[in-house]
Amino acid sequence: MKAFSLCFTKKTSSSGGDGFYCHSVLLPTFKASGNKGLQALVATVLEGRHPAQMVNPIDHNGPGALYVMPAFFLRNITIIN
Questions:
Q1: Can you tell me whether residue 55 is helix, strand or coil?
Q2: Which is nearest to 39 in space by CA: 24, 55, 52, 21?
Q3: Which of 9, 37, 40, 68 is most buried, judging by how many CB atoms fall within 10 Å of its CB?
Q4: What are the pLDDT digits (tens) for 13-60?
């Protein structure tokens, strides 16, 4: 987990915003890695957005190297090359 947070420090966009992050991201992280996993995840977050808002920066090479969102939203994204 520590290597992950070092590689992606302030480079992820997570589902949420204004100090709130989606439970569908937090709960699996906590279940898998406990408090240390949550701390590592928090260290990586650049910004919080609604998953629908994450698509625009992805399409336009916006900031962020990794986008963390619930699987439901991910399944509904259409990638156009």
A1: helix
A2: 21
A3: 68
A4: 888 887 788 888 889 889 999 999 888 888 888 888 888 787 777 777
Pair of tokens at residue 1: 């987990």
Give the E-state strand segments of the chain in sequence order: 12-17, 20-21, 45-49, 66-68
CA angle 20/57/40 to nearest 5° reads: 45
16 burial class (0-12, 13-18, 19+ CB within 10 angstroms)? buried
* DSSP result, 63-78: S-SEEE--HHHHHTPP
